[in-house]
Amino acid sequence: MLTLENLLSRRHVHFIGIGGVSMSALAEYLRARGVRVTGCDAVRGVYAARLAAKGVEIGVPRLDGAFDDFPLVIVNSAIRRDDPSLTEAMAKGCDIARREEALGAVFNSFGKSVAVCGTHGKTTTAAMIVHGLMSAGLTPAAFVGGVMKETGGNFVDGKDICVAEACEYRAGFMTLKPDINCMLNVDYDHADFYSGKEAAARAFRDFAGNTKGVNIVCGDDDTLKTFGGVTFGMGEDNYYSARGVWGKKGYYTFTFTEGGKPRFTATLSVPGLHNVTNALCACAALRVLGLGHGEIKRAVETFTGVDRRFTVYKGRFSVVTDYAHHPAEIAAALKTAGKYGLGKIRLVFQPHTYTRTRALFGGFLKALDADEIYIVPTYAARENAIEGYESKDLADALKREGKTVFYFDDMAALAETLKRKSADGDAVMLVGAGDVDALKDMLV
């Protein structure tokens, strides 16, 4: 079992897939502690570029000589067993650890820790908790799955408490033993690992058993409310709930109640009704951590979000980037767009993994519903194509549903088309967990 002492005693740690959001945060943590960090990735994305700017040596797609001094090698779950860098590291006899093991070694070393899990909403909720702690004058460490607008990064180096996203993919969160476990929702996803929602629910239940202190569970979720713990949610029977919820142009105001008693009224600075639930979870965690109602109100009202979570770039026509890659998330993003007051919406969707497209095909047909829909090639990640479930197949099926759909495999041509067709006040939404957001730079 990898321990923090093992990790920090290494003179050199090499990350295969260093550009991943969680991998890059771990790399930044180790570099800050004097460990020599190197890495490689298929492309030099935003997180890898951030590390390179701090002096981390990164190879694309490989780094020559990376294994000559037998470093500890950390890999994430998206790395295939036949990856050239991984096979070279194995042939050299390097010690190899999974990303989850490394995160667990760091996370579990803190005197107080908060994990945030759930199929949807964990990045925003974790970032909101971090913002609340920092606003109260504390110095949390944070490992978050996106760029927090308040800090400009996905990692915060701190000492008081550790806040981390707990990813359910391949039950990776089981390496974490949190004092506080925030559990948002359970839905079917990661079809290349889970056979169905029931299998995913078992993993979440197992993870609830890892908690050393209190589970904070969404009482509106039929699965989570059976786990026991402190409940939050829109329903008034939850210990922490929202009353008097109302919205204006997609931004919501609610009264936070605790044990049935109203404590404060707050207006969120991030749009979407789903963010009221995320905020309730964050408020609950901050209360358990001892923050006062005034501190929490100030935190939720001043939190401005995470990049690619309904991030709006305004111009002649608006461009919205959103990480949504599950039908439930796409539906929430489109609902938010409708309330926000955007004009004609052209939705660009990049499917993320073939197994997800196959497992949730019917859900995508229902959720993808805009004035015009543009489908681009699947972001394969760790997978090979599955016949009948490629992005072109999804586009064809949407057309059979009577929707206005176009398929593009040339991003430059798509950008020109969108610019030509979009009138003043229209909106282009770039949706998906892959690299579809790169299209923004061609449009803004």
Q: Could you explain the architecture of this structure?
A:
The protein is an alpha/beta fold. It is built from 15 helices and 21 strands. Helix 3 (46-53) links the parallel strand 2 and strand 3. The N and C termini lie far apart (47 Å).
Could you name the key traits of this structure?
444 residues; alpha/beta; six-stranded mixed β-sheet; 15 helices; 21 strands; globular
Category by helix and strand content: alpha/beta
| Mean pLDDT figure | 97
The coarse overall form would be: globular
Distance between the termini: 47 Å
Q: What's the arrangement of strands in the largest beta sheet?
A: 8-7-9-6-10-11-12-13-14-15
Largest sheet: 10 strands, mixed
SSE blueprint and pairings:
Elements: H1 4-9, E1 12-16, H2 21-32, E2 36-40, H3 46-53, E3 57-59, E4 72-75, H4 84-92, E5 96-98, H5 99-107, E6 113-117, H6 122-135, E7 141-148, E8 153-156, E9 162-165, E10 180-183, H7 197-208, E11 214-218, E12 230-233, E13 240-248, E14 251-258, E15 261-267, H8 274-288, H9 293-302, E16 311-313, E17 318-322, H10 327-340, E18 345-349, H11 354-359, H12 361-367, E19 372-375, H13 391-400, E20 405-407, H14 411-421, E21 427-431, H15 440-443
Parallel strand pairs: 1-2, 1-4, 2-3, 4-5, 6-9, 6-10, 7-9, 10-11, 11-12, 12-13, 17-21, 18-19, 18-21, 19-20
Antiparallel strand pairs: 7-8, 13-14, 14-15, 16-17
Helix pairs in contact: 6-8, 6-9, 8-9, 10-12
